[in-house]
């Protein structure tokens, strides 16, 4: 005899049944994502440095493997990679600090002159503003910029503004990068062992495909960011703008946010040209920034990126905007690589590509703890013995 619930289901249209079935499943998935985001936010001082370490490892891992293939001992290859990373970051900070310190007096002088010139222009025709109106306008603009910048800079995943938070994040980033370089394969084997046995082949294959995509993305972004920094930085240098080196460094860092970052940081050079050199220099600097961005978008990205990272430009803009709203600058930085890796992993799983791949030992291995994972090299030696 049919139950009452079955009779009710039979009386409903098929569309309503499908909609209700999809609804509770989507609500359950949304709740799981919300809980995950809540946990990530609570552990942001750990999560963000680890994510930065993963990006750094994606750059350093090919260098480490190249050194090992060149008969360099593994420990020495890791030391070279870490020393090179610290030297590059320290060198950039030193160059920026050196130029800011050397030009601080001139900048103070030019800033005061530029402010007085702007005030004289606003008090004259055709504006004829009073000093009080100018001061009120400056105060309103300052308040608006501070309010908007808090949303961008102090997003949900902001690491913190204190020196202690910065130092903690820096140490966690360096240690995480070091251990990924030392035993990244062993860490990944433990991650795969957490999955059910029949899902390990798909998890292993999709993760490795995502890792290759991340490596390609980071290498391309470093090259594109370097070219953006060179183009805009050299333009600022030849125009005689102050702080040409800090401008190039800011553009280099901003270019890691594809499409949006290079353009936004390039506007800084235009603003500096307008304040310290005048309208025509600012117009020339704007033309340089637009030319560099067009060269990046239509030549460098398609030529260098190729088919390694298949993310549509519209998707990039939307993902960056969503990441910035949810997590500020941190979210904008990680949004595109996360979307690219997720896109490749979902594509790998949906096409069931792991079924045609060679069987992975991870799919057959029983679940083990992280400290019990035996390195592959030791296993091979034991078999030879």
Automatic annotation (TrEMBL):
Q: Pfam families of this UniProt entry?
A: AI-2E_transport
Where is it chiefly localized? membrane
Q: How does it sit in the membrane?
A: Multi-pass membrane protein
Enumerate the transmembrane spans.
Answer: 21-40, 46-63, 75-96, 163-182, 222-241, 247-271, 278-295, 315-346
- Claim: Transport is one of the keywords in the record: yes
Where in or outside the cell is it found? Answer: Cell membrane
Q: Which UniProt keywords apply?
A: Cell membrane, Membrane, Transmembrane, Transmembrane helix, Transport
Keyword Transmembrane helix attached: yes
The family annotation for this protein states: Belongs to the autoinducer-2 exporter (AI-2E) (TC 2.A.86) family.
Protein name from the UniProt record? AI-2E family transporter
Name the source organism: Gryllotalpicola daejeonensis
């Amino acid at each position: 005899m049919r139950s009452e619930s079955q009779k009710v289901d039979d009386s409903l249209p098929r569309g309503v049944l499908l909609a209700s079935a999809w609804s509770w499943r989507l609500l359950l998935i949304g709740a799981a994502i919300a809980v995950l985001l809540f946990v990530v936010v609570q552990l942001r001082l750990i999560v963000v440095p680890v994510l930065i370490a993963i990006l750094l490892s994606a750059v350093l891992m090919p260098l480490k493997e190249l050194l090992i293939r060149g008969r360099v001992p593994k420990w020495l290859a890791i030391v070279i990679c870490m020393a090179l990373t610290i030297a590059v970051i320290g060198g950039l900070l030193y160059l920026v600090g050196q130029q800011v310190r050397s030009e601080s007096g001139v900048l103070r002088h030019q800033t005061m002159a530029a402010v007085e010139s702007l005030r004289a222009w606003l008090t004259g025709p055709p504006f004829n503003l009073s000093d009080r109106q100018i001061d009120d306008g400056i105060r309103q603009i300052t308040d608006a910029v501070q309010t908007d910048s808090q949303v961008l800079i102090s997003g949900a995943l902001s690491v913190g503004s204190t020196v202690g938070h910065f130092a903690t994040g820096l140490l966690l980033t360096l240690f995480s990068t070091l251990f990924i370089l030392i035993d990244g394969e062993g860490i990944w084997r433990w991650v795969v062992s957490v999955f059910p046995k029949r899902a390990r082949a798909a998890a292993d294959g999709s993760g490795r495909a995502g890792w290759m995509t991340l490596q390609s993305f980071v290498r391309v972004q470093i090259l594109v960011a370097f070219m953006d920094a060179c183009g805009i930085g050299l333009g600022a240098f030849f125009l005689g703008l102050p702080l040409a080196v800090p401008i190039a460094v800011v553009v280099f860092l901003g270019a890691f946010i594809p499409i949006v970052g290079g353009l936004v940081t390039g506007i800084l050079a235009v603003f500096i040209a307008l304040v310290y050199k005048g309208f025509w220099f600012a117009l020339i600097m704007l033309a340089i920034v637009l030319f560099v961005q067009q060269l990046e978008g239509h030549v460098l990205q398609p030529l260098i990126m190729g088919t390694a990272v298949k993310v549509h430009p519209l998707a990039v803009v939307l993902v960056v905007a969503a990441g910035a709203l949810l997590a500020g600058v941190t979210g904008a930085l990680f949004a595109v690589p996360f979307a690219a890796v997720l896109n490749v992993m979902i594509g790998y799983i949906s096409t069931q590509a792991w079924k045609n791949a060679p069987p992975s030992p991870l799919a057959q291995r029983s679940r083990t703890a992280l400290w019990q994972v035996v390195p592959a090299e030791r296993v091979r030696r034991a078999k030879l013995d």
